[in-house]
Each structure stands twice: as structure tokens, then as C-alpha cells.
Design goal:
The complex is a heterodimer of chains A (about 290) and B (about 220). By secondary structure, chain A is an alpha/beta fold. Chain A contains 10 helices and 14 strands. Chain A folds into 2 domains: about 210 residues, Rossmann fold (3-Layer(aba) Sandwich), CATH 3.40.50.300; about 70 residues. In chain A, a hairpin with a 2-residue loop joins strand 9 and strand 10. The longest helix of chain A has 19 residues. Chain A is elongated. Chain A starts with a strand and ends with a helix. Chain B is elongated, with a radius of gyration of 18 Å. Classes of the chains: A alpha/beta (about 290), B mainly alpha (about 220).
């Protein structure tokens, strides 16, 4: 079952545009939504929830049109934007007491379980929690109302490596039952190498890739060679960097014709992102 | 809606703001401009509620909830209207005490039923200016407060001048002639209707503007 399906989402601002953004997420998976700062990650997530109004496009959640069923669908999703810093002077218990009233499927037992599981004390104020604990509190809010789709905007940014790793383990635990899915945006691609099943890569408001992480990595290779070899390959490379010994570039695996002639390496998600961004920036300059 | 109103009074509006309504006690000052006593809510409560909520990221919190954007506006306007109503009830109590304590009429308008009616219209004017201006951005508070307060003060000044200089208005809305009670009661009822119409319009315009904002 598709928990989320986005089709041809468009949103135009004076300086920026989301162009035909399309991707989908099945139940039971974690999708990483990657892109450089300003690529359109947050705008896309906000459009999904109608917090920002898209100019066109279709958004379906649980195979239902989001626009027509917004209130009902919001009962089954949890989302987090821009850090958990609301009502920081209030206790977690008082925030829970308010939030629980809005959800028909709120379960106090589940809430208590996750509060204990994440070592959160209801008597503490939100401002007394570390950034990592705040994200966990946000997850408690989502999980207590049995959310099946979690949309999280940069939940790991600002966390130390230990807290990040801890949180990623939590994400993996959550999807284990095969019923929940998580879409989380990040520019820290190492997070995704640890836990993501799918990757959607956005740059300049356009989706560059959206497929399983393994397929994505298999689809590209880092290629190294001499400057003479570069002239032969240049048209096939996504982009490249030259240095004193030759060049290093990214190439689609399907475009490699003589693998024995080059040094090939498996790219990281960072490599894929960086070379694509380099290509887009180069293309934009050429257009100018 | 009732959950959002619960949220307003549990998280967003500190109970201390109820104390502002005690400025109604100023109605016991002899020979004074009693509109000032009921205007503190506009000077203190409304801007502080919105500023505090901005500092506490209320919008970020509210949009996490499964609610319509228009209901967020409705709950907030309802909460402020509730505080305005509390203020006028307190004013009415001290107005009655004023009537008992002082044998002589006030130099300016007396704190009677007509005064409460005009007070309602003053709040209606404030609401109609403040809320739509604020919800155009859901961010700006200073300029909407200044302009809305100015509009309310101009209205109240106009009422005082009208009642002071127009003999029939003075007789109907100010003097304690028992035969004129019907005019005072009428002013209260008409004031209430105008307040409801203005505040409902304020909500409709604000909700439409807030809906259009890309958060």
C-alpha cells in the first residue's frame, strides 16, 4: 500500500520553483529526502500538508486524496518541522494533555510506553530537554496517536553523532512492523546510509532520483582516469573534478563501456549528491 | 473547536491575563473617562497574548494538530472575545457600584448599560482592525495593535463628545432619567449586535487571509 504518493507537484516563488516533484513511499519503509540547503526539501514537505499551497499537483496519503480528506488523514500522520521548540516553558505532561484531545486514536498506554522507552519525564519542561530528546518527544506525540506515516524535516540536524545514531535505531525499530513509514529530510547523507530503504534526491526544486538506496548506489560509479581519458568520457559523466593526476567523476553504471581501462569505485550518497549538484550548477551557468 | 479553545486557555493564554479585567475598578474614580478603564485589555492583554504566543511558536504547534487553519483563527478570536466579555462584566459590576456610591452624575459618560453597549462597539472596532491586519502575516503585531488601538480610541472619544455635546444623546445615554432607560437598554442591544457583526466579519477576513499564507 502506498502511504504517500506525490505526483507532479509544482510551486512557484519569485526566486525558486518546485518543478514536477513526484515520488512515492510504500508502507514499512524509511525514505531519506536529501538535497543541499535550499534545494526544496522543506517546501515539498510543507506542500504535502497544505501548509504551503502548491500551484498544482496531486498528493495522496493512504491512497486517498489529501486535499479532500485533510482532517481525517492528519489523524494518521505525524510531522515535525524546524525543531521542537514550541511552548518550551511548559511541561511535557501539559503539552500531552492538550495534544491527546485532538486524536481519536490516542492511546495513553502507548504514550506511557514511549515516554518510558525514550526516558522522558512528563514533569520536565520542553526547554530542559536536549535536542535529541525533543525529537523523541515529537515522536511520542506521533506514535501515541498511532501515526502510520511520519514526515520529519531534518530531525537529525543539530544532534551529536551518538544522539543521531540512537535516533536512527529508533526509526528502524518503528518500521519493523511493516505498517509504518518514515519520510525524513536531511543533508547528512551518512544517516541514510545507516537506515534508509529509499532515497529521494532533490536539487533546485527538481527530483533528480527517487529509488531504493541500493539501486541508486548501483546505478552510479565513481570513475578515475587520466586527463586524456577524460576527453573521451566527458559527455558521459554526470560531472567531474580535475586534479594534477587526472580526473575523478561520477558516471552512470550503464554508460561504462570499458571498465578495465578505468579505476572504478562504489560512490557514497554524498558523492552522488555532490556530483549531481555540480552538474546542475554547471548547466545553469552554461544556460546563462 | 472545543479542543482548540482548551489549548488556548491551557497553553496559550496565561490566567494572569484575567487580572487585567480588574482595571475595571478604575470605574470607581469619580469624574473620569471610563472608556479608559475598559481599554487596558486592548493595550495590554491582546498584544501580550500575541507576542507571548509568537515567542512560544504557537503557530508551529497549532499546525502540528489535526485542525483546519481557519479553526486556529476562530479559537484565538473566541478566546479574546471571552476576555473582552469578562472585562465588560467586571466593568458592569463596578459601574453598578459607581452608581450606588456617587449621588452625582459623572462629568463625562456614566458607566451605565449604554456605556457597556458603546464599549462593545469599541471592542468590535478594535477586533475588525486588529485581527485581519495581524492574520495577513500571522506575524506582525506592533502595527496592527497601534492602528486598532487608535481606531478604538477615536471611536470612544467620538462617543464621549457625542454624548457631551448633543443634548438628546446626553439625555438618552447619560442622564439618569428613568424614562430614558429604554434608550440605554437599546444602546446595549444594538452595541452587542454591532460587536457580533464586526467580530464575525473580523474572523471571516482573518481566516481567509491566514488560509492564504504559506507557513
Amino acid at each position: 500500500m502506498n502511504l504517500l504518493k506525490v505526483t507532479n507537484l509544482n510551486k512557484r516563488y519569485a526566486q525558486f520553483q518546485l518543478r514536477d516533484v513526484s515520488f512515492q513511499l510504500d508502507e514499512g519503509y524509511i525514505m531519506g529526502f536529501i538535497g543541499a540547503n535550499g534545494a526544496g526539501k522543506t517546501t515539498t514537505l510543507k506542500c504535502l500538508l497544505n501548509l504551503t499551497h502548491p500551484d498544482s499537483g496531486k498528493i495522496e496519503m493512504f491512497e486517498q486524496d489529501f486535499g479532500r480528506n485533510e482532517l481525517a488523514l492528519k489523524q494518521h500522520i505525524g510531522f515535525m518541522f524546524g525543531g521542537v521548540d514550541y511552548y518550551a516553558a511548559h511541561t511535557l505532561a501539559s503539552i500531552l494533555d492538550v495534544v491527546k484531545r485532538f486524536y481519536t486514536d490516542w492511546d495513553d498506554e502507548t504514550c506511557r510506553y514511549y515516554m518510558n522507552h525514550f526516558s522522558l519525564n512528563g514533569d520536565k519542561k520542553l526547554k530542559e530537554l536536549s535536542d535529541g530528546m525533543r525529537v523523541k518527544f515529537s515522536l511520542v506525540l506521533a506514535l501515541s496517536h498511532q501515526a502510520r506515516l511520519l514526515l520529519l524535516d531534518e530531525p537529525t540536524s543539530g544532534l551529536d553523532p551518538v544522539a543521531r545514531d540512537d535516533l536512527l535505531e529508533v526509526f528502524q525499530e518503528l518500521v519493523e512492523d511493516g505498517k509504518k513509514s518514515i519520510l525524513f529530510s536531511t543533508h547528512i547523507t551518512s544517516d541514510l546510509e545507516k537506515c534508509a530503504d529509499y532515497i529521494t534526491f532533490i536539487h533546485n526544486g527538481r527530483i533528480i532520483e527517487s529509488r531504493s538506496k541500493d539501486d541508486l548506489i548501483d546505478a552510479y560509479r565513481l570513475i578515475k582516469g587520466t586527463l586524456d581519458q577524460l576527453s573521451v568520457l566527458e559527455g558521459k559523466l554526470v560531472s567531474y573534478k580535475t586534479h594534477a593526476f587526472g580526473f575523478t567523476g561520477l558516471i552512470k553504471s550503464a554508460d561504462i563501456t570499458h571498465p578495465e581501462k578505468f579505476a572504478l569505485d562504489v560512490p557514497s550518497l554524498d558523492d552522488i549528491m555532490i556530483y549531481h549538484v555540480k552538474k546542475e550548477n554547471h548547466d545553469e551557468k552554461s544556460d546563462l | 473547536m472545543k479542543n482548540l479553545i482548551f489549548k488556548e486557555f491551557r497553553l496559550s493564554i496565561h490566567p494572569l491575563f484575567y487580572l487585567v479585567s480588574l482595571f475595571g475598578i478604575l470605574i470607581l474614580i469619580p469624574n473620569w473617562v471610563y472608556f479608559v478603564a475598559i481599554a487596558y485589555i486592548l493595550f495590554i492583554t491582546v498584544p501580550n497574548v500575541f507576542t507571548t504566543n509568537k515567542a512560544q511558536n504557537d503557530i508551529t504547534f497549532s499546525i502540528l494538530l489535526p485542525v483546519r487553519k481557519q479553526d486556529v483563527v476562530k479559537a484565538r478570536i473566541f478566546s479574546i472575545v471571552w476576555l473582552e466579555a469578562v472585562q465588560l462584566v467586571v466593568a458592569a459590576i463596578f459601574g453598578y457600584l459607581n452608581h450606588i456610591i456617587y449621588a452625582k452624575n459623572n462629568f463625562l459618560m456614566d458607566p451605565n448599560a449604554a456605556f457597556i453597549g458603546f464599549g462593545l462597539v469599541m471592542y468590535g472596532v478594535f477586533n475588525l482592525v486588529f485581527f485581519p491586519m495581524h492574520y495577513k502575516t500571522a506575524y506582525k503585531i506592533g502595527i496592527p495593535t497601534i492602528i486598532a488601538t487608535f481606531a478604538a480610541v477615536v471611536f470612544a472619544t467620538g462617543v464621549e463628545l457625542f454624548v457631551y455635546f448633543v443634548p438628546f444623546a446626553n439625555l438618552a445615554f447619560d442622564a439618569s432619567d428613568p424614562a430614558m432607560v429604554i434608550w440605554k437598554a437599546g444602546a446595549f442591544i444594538v452595541g452587542l449586535i454591532i460587536f457580533l457583526v464586526m467580530t464575525t466579519s473580523a474572523y471571516r477576513i482573518s481566516a481567509r487571509r491566514f488560509e492564504r499564507i504559506d507557513l
